[in-house]
Design a protein that fits this description.
Layout lengths: L1 E6 L2 E6 L6 H8 L18 E4 L2 E4 L12 E3 L13 H8 L9 H18 L5 H7 L11 H12 L10
Parallel strand pairs: 1-5
Antiparallel strand pairs: 1-2, 3-4, 3-5
Bound molecules: FE2/S2 (inorganic) cluster (FES) (2 copies).
């Protein structure tokens, strides 16, 4: 089936089985391997991507459901010159990543939260940041450093070269 959608700001047209998982299409067909598979059952959030700005589990989503929609993966966050997004940067500086399997999904969920703060002019809070990553499991960090990274990123003015977009 022919599927057309926007992926990381570019239009993509593919001939794929309509029930192929978005995760498999990203990793195997398009070679975008930043999105990880953990449980494969919608429980861990390792495969989180953004669809029309909302966090979704790519392991559960048939590709047909992204037809005509906007998909973003971790690969879209760094600038063409390699500059990291605010949250990518603070995940490094706050030691928010250890083994790394959860990290791409955490960053996508955190990015959705940061955009929400910007869009709606909300003040960041640890409680809200925790809620934003509630669907993402981490076995290594105890979550505190990831929350720290999100709150630090929320303090970085976008004009300093870092982006939440
Ligand atoms: S791999 Fe998709 S939620 Fe775990
Ligand atoms: S850093 Fe290992 S699961 Fe989160």
């Amino acid at each position: 089936m022919k599927i057309v959608f926007e992926l990381n700001n570019k239009s993509v047209e593919m001939d794929v089985p309509p029930l192929a998982r978005l995760l498999d299409v990203l990793r195997c067909e398009l070679k975008l391997t930043a999105t990880k598979e953990g449980c494969g059952e919608g429980e861990c959030g390792s495969c989180s991507v953004l669809v029309d700005g909302d966090v979704v589990n790519a392991c559960l989503l048939p590709i047909v459901q992204v037809s005509g929609r906007r998909v973003e993966t971790l690969e879209s966050l760094a600038a063409a010159d390699g500059a990291l997004s605010a949250l990518q940067e603070t995940m490094l500086t706050a030691d928010g990543a250890q083994c790394g399997i959860c990290t791409p999904g955490m960053i996508m969920a955190g990015t959705a939260y940061l955009r929400c703060l910007e869009r709606d002019c909300h003040a960041p809070s640890a409680e809200d940041a925790r809620r934003a990553i509630a669907g993402n499991l981490c076995r290594c960090t105890g979550y505190s450093k990831i929350i720290d990274a999100i709150l630090l990123a929320a303090q970085i003015p976008t004009q300093e070269g870092f982006r939440h977009e």
